[in-house]
Amino acid sequence: MLVHAGKLAKILGFSTNLPSCAVWAPGLPGFSNWWDVWDWPKRQLTFRTEMEVNEFLHGIKAKAEQAGVSGNVELVSDTMLRCAAAHSAEPAWYRIERDGERWHVALVTPNRWLSESIESDLLHTGDPLEELIEEEMVELGLSNGPLPVQHYRSDDMLYTFRSPLPISPDNGTDLNTAVDIAARCLLAYEAAFRELGDMNVEKEDS
Predict the structure, then answer these.
(1) Which pTM does this prediction carry?
(2) What's 170's DSSP letter?
């Protein structure tokens, strides 16, 4: 059963009083230029101890499991949470991950055709991917978008869509708020990409 993003916000008890740090980084249709993205936001929340990192990821994991919109949810390392895309035609995962000192939300797949099916839908509709994700964020009560989106193939040969998390000490974000924001960004990614390409075979069969 697929759940609307707005209903998820109520189910999970998300607070609506969250700080806003909107940034718009226009690039190619649907994607952002690397130079507009790599250091956004200018300062991210830095966790002081590995225990805080552990609490951060476990907090997101609990909310992702409670939402019930993805497949298996697992911690695959000390700095990465991975959720399987439940209805994708090919293997794909939504991730919260740390790259250096910066945290991101991402969708990754080893399958070139799945990635191209998403790109094809975006080109066909003309909808910027950032706006689609932002719409789902708003449904979840989050006003921190739009998130700039990078799209590339990683060194480990994964086709990747990735955005920096809008968690910044400059807007008063603490650990609990960071968990809340990151979980909702993860759910917004899932809700937006679910409607694109071959990410939802149930939709195609209906």
Answers:
(1) 0.80
(2) G
Domain ranges, ordered by start, for the chain: 30-199
Give the pair of three-digit tokens for residue 96.
Answer: 């919260």
30-199 maps to which CATH number?
3.30.1460
Alpha carbon 168 to its chain's center: 16
DSSP 73-138: EEEEETTEEEEE-TT-SS--EEEEEEETTEEEEEEEES-HHHHHHHHHHHHHH---HHHHHHHHHH
Q: Decide if 134 contacts 145 (C-beta within 8 A).
A: yes
* pLDDT(23) > 50: no
Structure tokens at 174: 């603490």
Neighbours of 66 (CB within 10 A): 14
Measured distance CA(31)–CA(160) in Å, rounded: 12
pLDDT score at 17: 40
